[in-house]
Design goal:
It comes from Serratia oryzae. This is Phage tail protein. This protein has 360 residues and is an alpha/beta fold. It has 2 domains: 223 residues, no CATH class; 91 residues, no CATH class. Helix content is 32%, strand content 12%. The chain has 10 helices and 12 strands. The strands form 4 sheets. It has a 6-stranded mixed beta sheet. A two-stranded antiparallel sheet has the order 7-8. The longest helix is centred in the C-terminal third of the chain and has 25 residues. It is globular and about 80 Å long. The N and C termini lie far apart (99 Å). 34% of the residues are buried.
Length: 360
């Protein structure tokens, strides 16, 4: 007779495991084209500028450009690390190396800061186009000289083009990328608009208004100042991707993709390990998945990523299996949906004034 036979109560324990937040949107890499001693396609995490100097190949022809990228990135603050990856000095081969790495990465990166020497390269443009689907969560930050009529990236969502500085020791895109991946969305740390973010260690573009209008019309960002608002800080004008959308638009879309997928997968896995309340393919199971997805959108509202109060819809169990009879036997349900508007900031304000001599 076992000891259990003498027990009045037997306690069975199951475990519900919470989802670990994704850090994809906090990851970025600076691409080095010959400026380091690292092995090719072997990313190394840098947490300070000093760690770059330890691996730098300061005699290389491209060292100055990469050094300016690392310097400008860490000028924004040391609260955020950045990877660096060596691909060699040959441009086409380097772009091929990045494409090969992206196809089978050791570390998946949300943002790539690519060398200014690659600006306008046809292979780079193709790489960007190949990663511009709504579900592609990758962005290529690059300094460009759009005043020379180089509009290589317009309409391509994956590019974030910024007018390069006249000072070669400054990399404007590095400052912008730091801002983009620095967000850590929460109830008390909302995601602000990318347009007009403060940038440190950069210099405002000196150009006529017509030039700035040209850049804006071609979805190229640039460094300006907050002088119009009585603020002397340098700020990031436009804050858009090369398809013309505000960068926080795509940040929101990516955040929703990441977190809805994780939440639903977490609910299903935990539901398969909970004998008290298993998750079955029935109306109750659909309701639970719907509520879990709704929770993600509710958090998105709180975090400053979702506008309004969008509702997650779910096709009822009986309706769905009647219309999709083959799905039930393979455990497939495609009845969840939601339409929403990402949060964004103001870009232009029109204030109307009527002047009169008539006293009120």
């Amino acid at each position: 007779m076992s000891n259990d036979d003498y027990r009045i109560v037997t306690v069975n324990v199951s475990q519900t495991v919470g989802a670990i937040p994704s850090t994809l949107q906090q990851t970025g890499v600076i691409i080095s084209n010959g400026a380091t001693t690292l092995a090719a396609k072997t990313p190394k995490l840098l947490t300070s500028y000093a760690e770059f100097t330890a691996i730098a190949n300061d005699t290389a022809a491209t060292y100055a450009a990469v050094n300016s990228a690392v310097t400008t990135f860490f000028a924004q603050g040391n609260s955020l690390g950045i990877y660096i990856m060596e691909v060699g000095a040959v441009v086409d081969a380097g772009i091929d190396a990045v494409a090969a790495y992206m196809a089978d990465p050791d570390v998946r990166f949300y943002t790539y800061l690519v060398p200014v020497a690659w600006d306008g390269n046809a292979k780079l443009v193709t790489l960007g186009r190949n990663n511009s689907a709504n579900t592609s969560m990758v962005y290529f930050f690059i300094d460009t000289d759009a005043t020379a009529a180089k509009y290589h990236y317009k309409t391509i969502k994956s590019f974030v083009a910024t007018q390069k500085s006249a000072d070669p020791t400054i990399c404007n895109s590095a400052a912008a990328m730091w801002q983009f991946i620095s967000a850590s969305p929460s109830d008390i740390n909302k995601v602000p608009p990318m347009a007009f973010r403060y940038l440190i260690g950069v210099v405002a573009l000196v150009a006529k208004g017509s030039v700035k209008t040209l850049l804006t019309n071609n979805y190229v960002n640039y460094v300006g100042t907050g002088a119009e608002g009585g603020i002397s800080n340098t700020v990031y004008f436009n804050g858009m991707s090369a398809d013309g959308n505000d960068l926080t638009y795509w940040y929101s879309v990516d955040w929703i993709q990441i977190n809805v997928q994780m939440a639903l997968a977490n609910e299903i896995i935990n539901g398969s390990n909970n004998p008290i309340n298993p998750l079955y393919y029935n109306q109750d199971g659909i309701n639970r998945l719907q509520n879990r997805a709704q929770g993600v959108f509710n958090s998105g509202v709180t975090f400053g990523l979702v506008n309004g109060n969008p509702v997650v819809w779910a096709v009822p169990f009986r309706t769905y299996v009647k219309n999709n009879p083959n799905d039930y036997q393979i455990g497939r349900y495609a009845g969840l949906s939601c339409q929403y508007t990402p949060m964004r900031g103001f870009m232009k304000i029109i204030f109307n004034v009527n002047v009169t001599m008539q006293l009120s």
